[in-house]
TrEMBL record:
Leader sequence residues: 1-20
Alphabetical GO biological process terms: antigen processing and presentation; immune response
Descriptive protein name: Ig-like domain-containing protein
Bilayer-crossing regions: 214-236
Residues of the Ig-like domain: 112-201
Localization terms from the record: Membrane
Keyword Membrane found: yes
Membrane-related topology note: Single-pass type I membrane protein
Cellular component terms per the entry's GO annotation: MHC class II protein complex
Recorded superkingdom: Eukaryota
Keyword terms: Disulfide bond, Glycoprotein, Membrane, Signal, Transmembrane, Transmembrane helix
Length: 249
């Protein structure tokens, strides 16, 4: 009994010192349109980070990637009830769930969060940049454009594609070459399915967004820096007064 318990403890220590082992099964439903027939169901088995066997509903069979995986893929592919169960998961697991996703999530657009900031020039002889970023929007299609004094800017712009965040949302960025000129007004205009009207972000050259935060933190620091010594002086004087009362008698 005692040795059995010890065995378990030793096992735990081994697991921890070896940073652990992980056996995992990951089921994916891949779909590229709202046509539910197009769904591909992938059922993968991993040991640590190595995928060793995978069921693919398009192929309708298992494939192995290590000796162990190849051996078992061969066994499972000959067993009708295993293959039927996997194909059944295309309906049970994928199509049923994706129907819910489409009706409740993917059909409702999500507004982008828009941020405008300046970025230093990439090198000394290049102009600095204004960067307009749209974050966490859905669906993917978005337009970012620049206006200077009400005129659409067509040159000096580089934009990224919409980048998938990996959680249904997207982000996109647009850079404008920027030479500050007095009195000009620069705006980034965002058009997206979630917005009734285009969203306009105006550039405020006096206060770039991130520096506003820094100034606020600096101001708090300054005020604290003044208040704390002041309290110290008042306390010191109050103490002194207390001391004076006793000593002047
Ligand atoms: C699944 O199998 C199909 C057809 O063999 C192939 O085109 C597709 O790339 C496979 N998918 C994955 C994720 O392995
Ligand atoms: C097929 O797999 C099922 C589930 O693992 C098992 O119960 C059954 O005995 C297997 N059939 C054959 C012929 O190996």
């Amino acid at each position: 009994m005692v040795s059995g318990l010890l065995g378990v403890s030793l096992l735990f220590i081994t697991v921890f010192t070896a940073d652990g082992f992980l056996y995992a099964r990951v089921q994916h439903c891949r779909f590229y349109s709202s046509e539910l027939q197009d769904i591909e169901y992938i059922d993968s088995y991993y040991y640590n980070k190595l995928e060793f066997i995978r069921f693919n509903s398009s192929a309708g069979t298992f494939a192995g990637f290590t000796d162990l995986g190849i051996k078992n893929a061969h066994r499972w592919n000959r067993n009708r009830s295993i293959l039927d169960a996997e194909m059944g998961d295309v309906q049970r697991f994928c199509r049923n769930n994706v129907k819910v996703w489409f009706s409740s999530v993917l059909s409702s657009p999500v507004r982008p969060t828009v941020r405008l900031h300046s970025a230093p020039a990439p090198s000394a002889n290049q102009p600095s940049m204004l960067v307009c970023s749209a974050y966490s929007f859905y669906p993917q299609q978005i337009t970012l454009s620049w206006f200077r004094d009400g005129q659409k800017v067509t040159t000096g712009i580089t934009s990224t594609d919409q980048l998938a965040d990996g959680d249904w949302y997207y982000q996109a960025h647009s850079n404008l070459e920027y030479m500050p000129r007095a009195g000009e007004k620069i705006s980034c205009v965002v058009e997206h399915a979630s917005l009734r009207e285009p969203l306009v972000a105006d550039w405020d050259p006096a206060m770039p967004g991130s520096e506003k935060g820094l100034i606020a933190i600096g101001a708090c620091g300054l005020i604290l820096g003044l208040v704390v010594p002041l309290c110290g002086i008042l306390y010191y004087r109050w103490q002194l007064r207390g001391w004076d009362l006793v000593s002047t008698d």
